[in-house]
Design brief:
It is built from 11 helices and 17 strands. By secondary structure, the chain is of the alpha+beta class. Belongs to the ENDOU family.
């Protein structure tokens, strides 16, 4: 485990109150944390494996002599510090990577789908929520400030500060979280730009799938899909299928090889045709990191439909409005604090066995898991909508 931790992201939060000027970092994630090169509801990469900064994005953070860079959002919000680091362990060949131990399939963890779960997809989806042992605890692992609510059509900023007040730096030492973050700098955020996938990035993809495949949600997913005859009983074949499903490139915005399920759902894209719009971007980790760098401007939550419960600091399902790189996303929804393996598992299960709308109770949340397909074998988009 020590070998894995070495060289991972270390995000630390500085609790000094912000003031002063309204600077924004326009750098990519790779530039902030390393010293290398750089949807609505529905870049090309260098040889180092890091994303090249698009022409209209530039770095404006202040780097200190101690190797830390201060990044800003709004004047009223405290500053975060994001540690610059090299992921040397992730650059080694796959057979030299160090992974966490396999989850124990016995004992208190039951990863064998029951007949009832196999007969009712919603029960299988809820079981994945129960198996998310890596989910964070509000108030203990992180803190959010939802600000004020608004209607979708309202454009004024209803949040004085950031959505995330703080996040424990230990979170990014967790193997699946760290592997997930290593993927975020592999993409050009502008839709229609052909992606160039380096051997290093393919290694990161395979290593991420290998890491999450050792967790309870993914093992349960395999057993569920295998019982339904969707995938092979062979776990190695299953992992290859998962890598292909989430990372194989397809066309979006008129350009072949410009997008993938992972990029759209978790990283986000900016539509270039007509008025610019943010597409995809339904992941809280990506949101936190981009917000810490000043590239995301949180503008408040969207009022629940049918006068449902208002979100608060304990909520782990939010519908919000924000700007990313100065481009508005008027309505977006995502889970907060869930693990990468949970989201991969739940969207994969809905893709293979669900419909476009998949209604389920996940813990205390009535949710519609939306799943859009491109053709018969590609995930176009997937995200949760609060069904209340």
């Amino acid at each position: 485990m020590d070998g894995l931790v070495k060289g991972l992201i270390n995000v630390a939060l500085d609790h000094i109150q912000g003031g002063g000027d309204d600077e924004r970092s326009r750098s990519t994630w790779a530039q902030v944390v390393t010293t290398g090169d750089p949807e609505n509801h529905d870049g090309s990469s260098s040889n180092t494996g890091y994303t090249t900064t698009p022409p209209n994005i530039r770095e404006e953070g202040r780097e200190n002599d101690d190797g830390w860079e201060t990044v800003h959002k709004k004047p009223s919000k405290q500053h975060h510090k994001v540690h610059r680091d090299q992921w040397n362990n992730y650059k080694r060949p796959l057979d030299e990577q160090e992974y966490s131990s396999e989850v124990d399939s016995g004992g208190d963890i039951d990863i064998e789908p029951s007949k009832l779960e196999l007969a009712d997809l919603s029960k299988g989806l809820n079981k994945l929520w129960e198996l998310d042992l890596n989910r964070l605890v509000p108030g203990k692992d992180y803190q959010i400030d939802c600000g004020e609510g608004k209607k979708v059509y309202q454009k004024e900023d209803m949040a004085e500060g950031s959505l995330f007040s703080w996040l424990s730096e230990d979170i990014f030492r967790r193997p699946t979280y760290a592997r997930f973050c290593s993927l975020l700098d592999n993409y050009n955020p502008h839709e229609g730009y052909k992606e160039v996938v380096t051997p290093q990035e393919r290694q990161e993809q395979a290593a991420f799938i290998e890491e999450i495949s050792r967790t309870a949600p993914i093992k349960y997913l395999h057993k569920y899909l295998s019982a339904k005859g969707i995938v092979s009983d062979d776990y190695q074949d299953f992992k290859g299928m998962m890598t292909s499903l989430w990372f194989d490139l397809y066309g979006r915005g008129g350009t072949y090889g410009s997008s993938s399920a992972f990029e759209h759902v978790f990283v986000g894209e900016i539509k270039q045709q007509g008025e610019q719009q943010v597409s995809g971007f339904h992941n809280w980790i990506q949101f936190y990191l981009e917000e810490a760098k000043g590239r995301v401007d949180y503008q408040g939550y969207i009022f629940p439909r049918r006068h449902g419960q208002m979100p608060d600091s304990e909520s782990q399902l939010l519908t919000i409005q924000f700007e990313w790189n100065g481009v508005l996303k008027s309505v977006s929804s995502s889970f907060i604090g869930v693990s990468p393996e949970f989201e991969i598992a739940i969207y994969t299960l809905c893709f293979y066995l669900g419909a476009e709308d998949n209604y389920v109770d996940l813990g205390p949340y009535p949710v519609n898991i939306k799943c859009f397909r491109l053709g018969n074998n590609k995930i176009g988009s997937a995200f949760p909508i609060a069904d209340s």
